[in-house]
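Quick start: what a row looks like.
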Amino acid sequence: MIKQNAFAAIQVPEFRNFFFGRFVFITALRMLGTLVGWWVFELTHDPFAIGLIGLSEVVPALSLALYAGHVIDISEKRKLMLRSVAFYFLAVLMLISLSTRISLAMFSSHIVVFCIYIIIFGTGVLRAFVSPVFNTILPTTVPKELLQNAITWNQGCWLSASVLGHAGAGFLIAGLGNTGALSVVASFAAIGFCLLFSLPKKPSLNLNSEKKTFESVKEGVRFVFKTKELLGALSLDLFAVFFGGAVAMIPVFAKDILKCGPIGYGWLNAASDIGSVIIIITLTFYPIKGEQGKKLMYSIAGFGICIITFALSKIFWISFAALVISGLLDGISVVIRGTILQLKTPDNMRGRVMSVNSMFINSSNEFGQFESGVTAKLMGVIPSVVFGGCMTLFVVTTTWFKAPALKNMEY
C-alpha cells in the first residue's frame, strides 16, 4: 500500500507516465499558443488579429464539445488521446511549412495569416476531444484514495508546462526565429506521444453504446446543471476568465508599451503560470481546508485587481509581478474547481461532464481572447484591460450575493 503523503500519486507508475507525457504535450501546446500570437501580431500589427486567433479555435471546440463527450464515453480512451496528439503534431508541421522563407516569398502576409487561422480552426476541433479525454483518463491511473493528490499533481503538471512553454517560446523566437521555434514544438509533441503510448488501454465504462447520441449528451448536461456547486463554480470561472483575459494582449504590451522584446514577452506570458505553479506546490503539501467557496471568490476578486494593476503599469517588473500574483490566485480557484469536478462525477459520465467543463473553461479563454481583441479595437488596449478587470470584480460581487450555495460550499 502506497504511503499517504504529498508524493503518493507520483509514486504510481501509470500515473507517472501519464504525468510526464501530458507535461511534454502541454508544453508544446503552450509554446504553440505563444508563438502564434507573436507571429500574427508581427504580420498584422493589429490587436484585433490576435483576438481572431481565439475565435478561430473556440468556434469548433465549443460546437463539438458535447458530441466529443459522448464519443469519449463510448470509446477506447487511450487510442482517442493518441490520435488527437498525432493530429496536433501534423498541425504544427503545417505551420512550419507556412513559416519558411519560401512560403513568405510566395504568399502575402494576409494569405499567411488566413492559413494560420484555418490551421488553428483545425486544432480547435482537436481541442474538443483532447482536454476532456485527458481529464477522463486521469482518475483511472490511481487508486480512488489518491485521487485528490493526483488532481493537485495534474494541475501542477499543466501549470508548470505552461510556464516552460510560454517562457521557452520567447527564448526560442529570439534565438531560432519562428520556423526553428515551431520545429521545437513539433519535437515536444512527438516526445509526448511516445510517453503517452506506454499507457494501457482505457476501454469505455459506459456499456450502453446503443444509447442515442442526443440522449447521451443531454444526460451529461443535466448532471452538471443539477449539481449546483459545480454549475456555480464553472459559471464564475467562465465570466471571470472571459472578462479578465489580459494575457491575450500581452504581445501588444510587450512590443508597444513595455518595449521588452521577445524574451520579455515570453516571461510576461509565463508570469501567471509561474504564480500558479508556486501555489500548486504549496497546496500539494498544505491542502485547502474549509470554506472553499469563499476562498474561491476571494481569489477571483484578487485576480481582477491584478489585471487592473497590469493594465496601468508602465514598468516591466510591476507588470510581471501583477501577473505572477494573478497566477497565484488563479491556481487556488483551479484546484478548488478541479477537485469538485472529479469528486462529484460518476465514472461512466466523465467524458460528457468533462466536455461540459471544457465548454465553460476552455471556451472562456478563447472567447476572452476574442473579447479582448474587440474591446482593444473599440477602447484602446489599456482601457480594454482595465474594463476586463473591473468586470471580473463585478461578476464576483454579483455571485457573492446571488449564489449562496457556492459561497458556502465546502468539501
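That is the whole record. The mean pLDDT is 82. The two ends are 25 Å apart (CA to CA).
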